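The following record pairs a protein chain with its ligand, nicotinamide-adenine-dinucleotide.
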Amino acid sequence: MLLDLTGKKALVTGIANNRSIAWGIAQQLHAAGAELGVTFLPDEKGRFEKKVRELVEPLNPTVFVPCNVQDDEQIETVFKTIADKWGNLDILIHCLAFANRDDLSGDFSSTSRGGFSTALEISSYSLPALAKGAKPLMMENGGAIVTLTYLGGVKVIPNYNVMGVAKAALETSVRYLAAEMGPNNIRVNAISAGPIRTLASSAVGGILDMIHHVEEVAPLRRTVTQQEVGNAATFLCSDLASGITGQVLYVDSGYEIMGM
Ligand SMILES: NC(=O)c1ccc[n+]([C@@H]2O[C@H](COP(=O)([O-])OP(=O)(O)OC[C@H]3O[C@@H](n4cnc5c(N)ncnc54)[C@H](O)[C@@H]3O)[C@@H](O)[C@H]2O)c1
């Protein structure tokens, strides 16, 4: 079966809690047979670590490491740990983003220099930064990298503001990485998910209104679940998607095709 990921080693970033899209992806990759590695965002009191460790325990991750993508040393340690423990890597899931709450409502022109650069550093630069670490571990057998984006990177969505700019940079990074890594049979794709209530999305002003709007006008008359995004990510990481790279796949109940 081409969707069987048995024997594949997958690193999943961006799990914060049981609402995280990355959690939906990790569950589906595990169900398809992949061996999981999980990163968490370290904080001073270790709260995230404990929460994420307990959540992912049923999926038996064999790598569990801190990774703040603003810290090059932490990124290096992640891939050194994988090289030591696994020897190679088949799948990288990039599922993280951040912008200051102040920059996710009001006038886009009010975005501060610092807020702009933080949003782009964490939400966009982190993809090539992690891909650089993954590349040597994927060179021999090929691999798949999947990131998460949103329609706000292509169209103006109220309050998405600087995160829209970050997602545009992320989607362009997908294309440049796909072109660079294709000759090594490393595929790089993005999923553009419909709005889902999560920790990150709750920082975007009016997210509930957006979800209600999608429920009214999207062809499927509902928004999507973490599990549906997880299914699409699993497909993109599997041999069923062996001819697909550099793409943005909309998993949004069809909302993107509508003119309203
Ligand atoms: N929820 C939505 O409606 C939606 C829609 C489309 C795309 N997305 C994208 O999905 C991805 C996951 O977001 P989510 O909605 O599941 O929210 P989430 O809050 O569950 O996940 C965001 C993750 O980013 C991590 N993070 C933040 N700063 C970091 C840093 N410096 N280093 C490492 N990790 C860091 C957090 O720890 C968290 O795990 C994001 O890229 C988001 O933009 C979300």
